[in-house]
């Protein structure tokens, strides 16, 4: 007799493990299958996010930022440092330790909540059955009332720069470099490319980012993106827009990249290491038996409705493997929604308010609509901007670059979006996300008392500025 579960989750990234925990909390008998193995061949939970994504990249961003500060800005505070040395292997070992603490933490959470952790590969068969092959290759079939597919995503490979794990690497390889490359090329100046380029740039690499699009961070508010580009260029990142990589040649220990610039001219650049960061694609290899009943969309994502329900009754899908932004927190919220819907609740998710952050220094963070989107919709709007150069707290911290921008409907004053480049932008934008979730107007935010001196005051002032009465900057004349 095969084992019977209320819920079987396939994949234990932030979408899958959160779904499994929430389902178990709701009293459902839940198993979660995960195929990820660490360097010792041991099964580990956490998916891309914990193993090779959000967390390890932030660990390296924080280490490299400290090095950069010691190198470039301690002297402004009167702190003299002698010769600085960067021990890359210690930095990487610290990152590994954080990863293993957190992945181990999920094992603990599964245990505490009564989730059965199964290491191996899951495959959806017809009739909500799941074929589970453990790490030793032994196969069994699990029966489930509900199956949640949470198999995530994987880096996109481009034939013009095929990853060889040596001179040409993907984001995972860029988290494991053992020394600082002298000349570092990055294909794709998107979220991941900018973060990884920043890590190694701060440690001394000469970084060139080749980006096919003419606009920098085309999906972000363009005023913020332009400001961010100026800041990153000042930091030494060489961001070349309109440059599409069309070929690469590995010559021993270096790689020669050919790209076409915006005038269509062919250019060449030589790097010691080339990181390919051209995006991610949904991962469904080996996941679906031909008669599983689950359909993929034209881009290879598992097709789901607004509630993450697939075409096959009782089969759900969440996280990077379905449409929407490839963000850990988006997948986690979908996981909660699905678990609660399985338990009979009517949970919905607000896809309009999902914060999006790039963890450069300063950070870039956004929630809601960009000014371009609002303008195109024809909705009347006001914009409030507050530069960090006018913030006492930012000045004290020597973090004066950037701004907070709040967009509100000109008639109702409802906040439509917030875009920030600046210190702690990730945490600041969350304040506006909460306000938006409660349907706040810019005036509501403006009437909220903010502590002084805080970086948050920049959010307060931007909200006031949207209605033309910021205190600490001159307000733009209203029509
Ligand atoms: P994943 O995390 O990809 O997990 C899927 C899991 O399913 C994997 O563990 C995989 O082994 C397993 N699996 C697949 N197929 C099977 C199968 N058949 N059987 C069993 N198991 C299977 N997002 C943010 O929100 N913030 C960030 O700062 C951020 N930084 C990032 C930095 C980098 C370098 C990268 C690469 C990504 C980053 N992301 C970030 C994106 C984030 O990691 C993903 O959005 C998130 O991990 C997606 O979660 P998921 O659970 O859908 O899938
Ligand atoms: P993201 O989707 O944020 O990870 O960003 C990936 C970036 O890579 C996008 O901005 C793409 O325009 C860019 N990109 C994709 N293919 C190429 C290429 N061949 N050369 C340069 N940039 C590319």
Helix/sheet category: alpha/beta
Shape: globular
Strand content: 15-25%
Main sheet makeup: 5 strands, mixed, barrel
The portion of residues assigned to helices is 25-40%
The CATH superfamily of the largest domain appears as FAD/NAD(P)-binding domain
Report, as a whole number of angstroms, the end-to-end distance: 75 Å
Explain what the structure shows:
- Helix 1 runs parallel beside helix 4, helix 1 runs parallel beside helix 8 (328-342) and helix 3 runs parallel beside helix 6.
- The model has no long low-confidence stretch (mean pLDDT 97).
- The chain folds into three domains: 3-155 and 281-342, FAD/NAD(P)-binding domain, CATH 3.50.50; 159-278, FAD/NAD(P)-binding domain (3-Layer(bba) Sandwich), CATH 3.50.50.60; 356-465, Enolase-like, domain 1 (2-Layer Sandwich), CATH 3.30.390.
- Strand 9 (206-210), helix 7 (222-235) and strand 10 (238-240) form a beta-alpha-beta unit.
- It has 479 residues and is an alpha/beta fold.
- The strands form five sheets. The chain has a five-stranded mixed barrel with strand order 1-2-3-4-5.
- It has helices spanning 14-25, 47-52, 54-72, 88-113, 171-174, 191-202, 222-235, 328-342, 371-377, 392-396, 425-437, 442-447, 457-466; strands at 4-10, 30-34, 116-124, 129-134, 139-149, 153-155, 168-169, 183-187, 206-210, 238-240, 244-251, 254-260, 266-271, 273-276, 280-282, 315-317, 356-358, 363-368, 381-387, 403-409, 415-422.
- The longest helix is centred in the first third of the chain and has 26 residues, at 88-113.
- The chain is 31% helix and 25% strand.
- Residues 10-16, 33-36, 47-49, 52-54, 57, 121-122, 150-153, 171, 192, 283, 286-287, 319-321, 326-329, 331, 359 line the site of flavin-adenine dinucleotide.
């Amino acid at each position: 007799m095969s084992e019977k579960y209320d819920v079987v989750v396939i994949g234990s990234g932030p979408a899958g493990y959160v779904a499994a925990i929430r389902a178990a909390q709701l009293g459902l008998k839940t198993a979660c299958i995960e195929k990820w193995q660490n360097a010792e061949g041991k099964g580990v939970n956490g998916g891309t996010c914990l193993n090779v994504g959000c967390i390890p990249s932030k660990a390296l961003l924080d280490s490299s930022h400290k090095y950069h500060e010691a190198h470039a800005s301690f002297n402004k505070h009167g702190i003299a440092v002698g010769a600085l040395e960067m021990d890359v292997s210690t930095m990487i070992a610290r990152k590994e330790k954080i990863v293993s603490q957190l992945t181990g933490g999920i094992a603990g959470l599964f245990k505490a909540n009564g989730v059965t952790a199964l290491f191996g590969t899951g495959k959806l068969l017809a009739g909500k059955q799941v074929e589970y092959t453990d790490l030793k290759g032994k196969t069994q079939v699990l029966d489930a009332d509900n199956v949640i597919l949470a198999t995530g995503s994987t880096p996109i490979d481009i034939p013009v720069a095929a990853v060889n794990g040596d001179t040409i690497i993907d984001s995972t390889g860029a988290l494991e470099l053992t020394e600082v490359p002298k000349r570092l090329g990055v294909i794709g100046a998107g979220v991941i490319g900018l973060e990884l380029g920043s890590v190694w740039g701060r440690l001394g690499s000469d970084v060139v980012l080749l980006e096919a699009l003419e606009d920098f961070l085309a999906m972000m508010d363009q005023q913020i993106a332009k400001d961010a580009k100026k800041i990153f260029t000042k930091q030494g990142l060489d961001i070349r827009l309109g440059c599409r990589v069309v070929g690469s040649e590995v010559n021993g220990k270096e790689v020669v990249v050919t790209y076409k610039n915006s005038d269509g001219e062919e250019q060449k650049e030589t790097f010691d290491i080339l990181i390919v960061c051209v995006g991610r694609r949904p991962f469904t290899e080996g996941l679906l038996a031909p008669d599983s009943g689950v359909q993929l969309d034209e881009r290879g994502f598992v097709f789901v409705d607004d509630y993450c329900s697939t075409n096959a009754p009782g089969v759900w899908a969440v996280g990077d493997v379905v449409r929407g932004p490839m963000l850990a927190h988006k997948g986690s919220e979908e996981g909660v929604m699905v678990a609660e819907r399985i338990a009979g609740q009517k949970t919905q998710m607000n896809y309009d308010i999902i914060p999006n952050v790039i963890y450069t220094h300063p950070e870039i963070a956004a929630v809601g609509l960009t000014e371009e989107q609002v303008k195109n919709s024809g909705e009347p709007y006001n914009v409030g901007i507050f530069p960090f150069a006018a913030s006492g707290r930012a000045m004290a911290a020597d973090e004066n670059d950037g701004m907070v921008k709040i967009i509100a409907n000109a008639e109702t004053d409802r906040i439509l979006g917030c875009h920030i480049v600046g210190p702690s932008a990730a945490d600041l934008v969350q304040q506006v996300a909460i306000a938006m979730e409660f349907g706040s107007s810019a005036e509501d935010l403006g009437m909220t008392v903010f502590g002084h001196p805080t970086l948050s005051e920049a959010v307060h002032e931007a909200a006031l500025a949207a209605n033309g009465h910021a205190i600490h900057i001159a307000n733009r004349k209203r029509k």
